[in-house]
Amino acid sequence: MTADSDAITASQEAAKRNLWLHFTRMSAYADGDVPVIVRGSGPYVFDQHGKRYLDGLAGLFVSQVGHGRTELAEAAARQAGELAYFPLWSYAHPKAIELAARLADLAPGDLNRVFFTTSGSEAVESAWKLAKQYFKLTGEPGRYKVLSRELAYHGTSMGALAVTGLADIKGPFEPMTPGGVRVPNTNFYRAPGFVHDDLDAFGQWAADEIERAILREGPASVAAVYLEPVQNSGGCFPPPPGYFQRVREICDTYGVLLVSDEVICAFGRLGYYFGSERYGYQPDIITFAKGVTSGYSPLGGMMVRDELMEPFTEGTATFLHGITFAGHPVSTAVALANLDVFEKENLLENVRTNEAAFRATLEKLLDLPIVGDIRGAGYFYGIELVKDKDSRETFNDDESERLLRGFLSGALFEAGLVCRADDRGDPVIQLSPPLICGQEHFDEMEHILREVLTEAWKRV
Ligand SMILES: Cc1ncc(COP(=O)(O)O)c(C=O)c1O
Fold it and tell me: Edge-to-edge strand order for the sheet containing 420-422?
């Protein structure tokens, strides 16, 4: 054994003995290696053995500018040398101020106030806590419920979990924080029969379901509705035309806050700084995380309209909420450097210019019998897998288990592609590559997917 292989063996043993991977069946690694990623460069990452993978998921919808960017690493080191930490509790620091102002400039409308967090779940919870306290301060103390869509993922901490629409990941943690209410999502491929061939009518129906839910729950009890611009979980559901305009109208009618959860969809994923910009609606709150730093340091937050801040600007009123590491100096410095890269390299333009080619390349896969639907926007796509294309019949639980967990996840990785095979709704493969990608990377994704999905079909 060489020194290198000794080190790999030791690290594998320690990974299995001491590390707890998230949302991972640890038993899956009993007889095999834990995949260990050691470095990255551009849209590629490399494992312990030096094998290269195309990062088709940008880590976890995070690495917008790609891996190995020394300018971001240097910004982090400079800031750590100057001021590594100070809290935002009663104090400010220059990078938090600068980033808040820059984000306010970029965000649509009067979303001028930034409350930082360290993660997306904290951003989602912060928005709910703000909504509750805001309504208590403004004479509507009964408003505490939050609407969100079936299958939508909004995070895992107990508050965010109550907003999340995935029953399977909530079950073990019942009872939930009270107040979470579900409305339909915008999966047109699985639209109800009476609107299955009319996208506009489907969008209108899905938006109107939000109104019906508000009326059913009692408008005086509803605080907010949480929607992603393009819903991730379930496999990339873009909004039908007019959907968000109708939702905005409904929110205004009933005094409900519209929270645009852009933890994935902000910072270029859809070709704009914010997904709400792409679809032309004005949120009351935007939640963000992930791409704001491209993952070079953790950061999240919410952006809030002036009006929501007003009750907190006088007398003793205080938003009674805070997080030790929120708006960390190193993370905010990194976010500023990240935004500099966006500007210097025209990353939004890159996505807008190339997204049609990305879609067209993925759509070649529609000739495979297992590929039912390809949907998404920008650099964010879901591929829905089906057992029968004509009837759109999906796989049952056993088949999903064999296909996704038993074969596809491993085989795609083995073939050199990081992506996500997900069966929290119908089985889908999710793609969300770094925003620096171009045609050669689209082709590489398509080739690997074609090869592995062809093999998967033989096993159905
Ligand atoms: C839309 C959305 N909201 C919230 C979250 C939770 O973010 P985090 O994992 O940073 O807590 C996620 C994570 O993927 C997400 O996609």
Answer: 371-377, 380-385, 428-431, 420-422
- What value does the CA radius of gyration of the chain take, rounded to a whole number of Å? 22
Q: Which of 121, 166, 226 to mutate to test the pocket of ligand 1 (most atoms within 8 A of CB)?
A: 121
Over residues 205-261, the pLDDT tens digits come to 999 999 999 999 999 999 999 999 999 999 999 999 999 999 999 999 999 999 999
Strands 380-385 and 371-377: antiparallel
Query: Cα 282–152–457 angle (5° rounding)?
Result: 125
Check if 228 has its Cβ closer than 6 Å to any atom of ligand 1.
Answer: yes
Of 354, 248, 349, 339, give the one whose Cα is nearest residue 296.
339
**Substitution candidate for ligand 1 out of 62, 151, 154 with most atoms within 8 A of CB:** 154
Q: Six-digit token pair at 154?
A: 């909004």
Query: For residue 264, how far is its CA from the centre of ligand 1 (angstroms)?
Result: 7
Question: What atom in ligand 1 is closest to the CA of residue 261?
Answer: 1
CB 249 within 8 A of CB 211: no
Instruction: Give tens-digit pLDDT for 417-442.
Output: 999 998 888 899 999 999 999 999 99
Q: Are 445 and 56 in contact (CB under 8 A)?
A: yes
Ligand 1 lined by 231 (C-beta under 6 Å): no
Residue 189 CB neighbours (<10 A):
17
CB 273 within 8 A of CB 343: no
Q: Which of 6, 4, 25, 26 is nearest to 16 (CA)?
A: 26
Question: Ligand 1, closest atom to CA 152?
Answer: 1
Provide the pLDDT for residue 1. Answer: 55
The residues near 280 (Cβ < 8 Å, ≥ 6 apart) are 244, 245
Does 422 sit in the ligand 1 pocket, CB within 6 Å? no
- Phi, psi angles (nearest 5°) of residue 250: -65, -45
Task: Give the span between the Cα atoms of 412 and 422, in whole angstroms.
Answer: 13
